[in-house]
Amino acid sequence: MQSLRVGCVAVAASRCHLLRGLAEVSACCHARFSPDQTRFYQTGAKPQDTVIIRVPLNLQNRVENVKQTRVRNKISTVKAGKLLIQSKNPTLNQSAGYILGKFETPNLCSKGWKHRKSFGDYFIIRKIKDVAPHVAEVQEEEVTQKTSVTFNKLHICKELVEVLDNMGITHPTTVQLQTIPKVLKGYNILCAAETGSGKTLSYLLPIVHRLLKAGQELDVYSTSAKKTRTIILVPSRELAEQVAAVSRTLCAPFGLLTRTVGGGRGVGHIKSVFQGDHPDVLVATPGALVKALQRHCLDVSELKFLVVDEADTMFDPSFSDMLKRIFSRTNIARDAKETRGLEKKTQLLVVGATFPGGVGEVLSQVTDLGKMVIIKSKMLHCLMPHVKQTFLKVKGEDKILELNQALKMLRHEKGEGSSALVFCNKSSTVNWLGYSLEEMGVQHDRLQGEMPAVVRAGIFQKFQNGTVNVLICTDIASRGLDTSRVNLVVNYDFPESHTDYIHRAGRVGRVGSVEDGEVLSFVSQMWDVELVQSIETAARRRTSLPGMESGIREPKPKAENEEE
User: Fold this and answer.
1) Distances (CA, A) of 371 to 187, 341, 348
2) Which CATH class is domain 83-131+384-541?
3) Given CB 3.0 to 4.6 Å as the disulfide criterion, which of 97, 286, 455, 540 pairs with 106?
4) Is residue 315 within 8 Å of 348, Cβ to Cβ?
5) How far is 11 from 179, CA to CA, in rounded Å?
6) How do the domains of the chain map onto residue ranges?
7) What is the Cα–Cα distance from 319 to 323, expressed in whole angstroms?
């Protein structure tokens, strides 16, 4: 019994020693962890319970360090000076002087726009330059050279320069400085430059100059002098009339004849265009030109120039088959030497505001892509820095009210003579919106591709002349048309691609256009938000819009065993 009693006392002493040790460990843990940390590491509130560490101390310290680093590195994107992005939420503003880091994720105003509670939100890409980049570059070059860059220095004949002076055009734009010398030397050209940069004159001026020089060398009564020597392909009748008007202004003083031929008026109309003398310059839509070639109304054996304008549309699948048929009828040069020899071949000029997709596959069949001169502007596929662009998240049923309010504000700020282009994605929407604006007392006109040719004729000219100040249209009016008097572009339906947005927004801020042009875009559908987010990201990063062609893709070689 005595030994048993001694053993129990020893066990009790050992137990007390163990409890004392656990208490010291607990006190040590409480000393090392803060009360907030201890709350996460303990499983109960009773003091006698054992401490259980859920997260290793070193890992917890790393987490705390990351949190503190994020707080220290939270830099405001708003600095003194002009704003680049202005949002309904001021914390999301971004100054023009702030440059995002390469791996820095931008905080987008449109991040939550897929949520139904985002209706009424907006952001504005403000203009940070007073003039278009293609004008500013010429001004900088003049300052550098301490001399004025004129068309005389591009070796354009004096008589043609005088015509330009009468038109009020004295200085070439950047794209004209780059393109005209190459065309004069006979190179095949692919020119991609932003909308409104003067691409039409960049190919018309050297063409007319070379036609005049060639006419002086030809006998007036020779067969070559009586055949069409220039064909300009455009996607729409409205653009054909506009390009032809510029061509007539340049050609008329020299007795050169310009005519247009478009679809929708029957074969009889096409034949009437070629009765009598054939035009020196023919501006045509692809469908009408194919019909003229099939019926032998047009002889292209002496064709010197073939221009494909608005190339991104012309190389689209809807036109590409007709384009291939036209190319097969013409003898396109593969090298600049072939455009100047005795057997002169056709010089090819491809022009557009964006790089056309699939252009390499088509052109590789008719010319040498390696010897084709590519002219690409610095601002290609970029948002215009001299045009204010507003994006408004709005319910579909509220768009008509927002549009009416925007048109009222335009007349109030710019006067009764101010004009607006309203873009819709479908012809049916154009008609419905027209009826709605009529009920609101808004005078307007409509232009869409399903209209008969007789109805469409003259509508855009009325808008250009100021007879009508509001034009509701589809993308038929977004390609190449001169809209120098437009103050406001409204995307009633948000465009379906970056290319469409660039062309629509390019109706303002053009060479010779009114100042302070603006773009207003309504965003109502969930599928529009991703496109808006990519546009906002490009604006914040000062980069080009993603997913667009930036060069000619060489066609893949066919496998040896591949069937023809």
Assistant:
1) 8, 17, 12
2) alpha beta
3) 540
4) no
5) 101
6) 26-74, 83-131+384-541, 133-376
7) 6
Q: Which CATH class is domain 133-376?
A: alpha beta
Alpha helix ranges (H) inside 486-525 = 498-505
What pLDDT is stored for residue 202 in this prediction?
95
Place of tokens 């927002």: 402
Residue 71 burial by Cβ neighbours in a 10 Å radius (0-12, 13-18, 19+): exposed
pTM for the model stands at 0.79
Listed in sequence order, the residues at least 6 apart from 487 whose beta carbon sits closer than 8 Å to its beta carbon are 410, 414, 418, 419, 420, 508, 514, 516, 517, 518
Residue type, 283: V
**Tokens describing residue 270:** 């096409």
Instruction: Report residue 337 as tokens.
Output: 């030497």
CB atoms under 10 Å from CB of 481, counted, come to 23
**With contact defined as beta carbons under 8 Å apart, do 470 and 437 qualify?**
yes
* pLDDT values of the chain reduced to their tens digit, one per residue, 564 residues: 445 454 444 545 555 554 455 455 444 444 444 444 444 444 444 555 566 667 788 887 877 776 665 555 555 777 767 899 999 999 999 999 898 888 888 999 999 999 989 999 999 999 988 776 656 565 555 555 545 778 888 989 999 999 999 988 888 999 999 999 999 999 999 998 888 888 999 999 999 999 998 866 554 444 455 689 999 999 988 899 999 999 999 999 999 999 999 877 778 888 888 887 889 999 999 999 999 999 888 889 889 999 999 988 888 888 888 999 999 999 999 888 888 766 689 999 999 988 777 788 888 888 888 889 999 888 888 999 999 999 999 999 999 999 999 999 999 998 888 999 999 999 999 999 999 999 999 999 999 988 887 788 789 889 988 899 999 999 998 887 878 889 999 999 999 999 999 999 999 988 767 778 899 999 999 999 999 999 999 999 999 998 777 666 666 655 444 443
Tell me if 83-131+384-541 shares its fold with 133-376.
Answer: yes
Angle between helices 174-184 and 199-217 (to 10 degrees): 30
Identity of the residue numbered 133: P
CA dihedral sign of residues 172, 373, 381, 527: positive
How many other CB atoms sit within 10 Å of the CB of residue 275?
8
Q: Give the three-class secondary structure for 104.
A: coil
DSSP-assigned letters across all residues of 382-441 = PPPTTSEEEEEE--GGGHHHHHHHHHHHHHHHH-TT-EEEEE-SSHHHHHHHHHHHHHTT
Report how far apart, in Å, the C-alpha atoms of 80 and of each of 93, 168, 204, 386, 462 are. Answer: 12, 39, 45, 20, 45
Q: At which residue do the structure tokens 């100040």 appear?
A: 469
> Strand, helix or coil at 173?
coil
Contact 549, 355 (CB under 8 A): yes
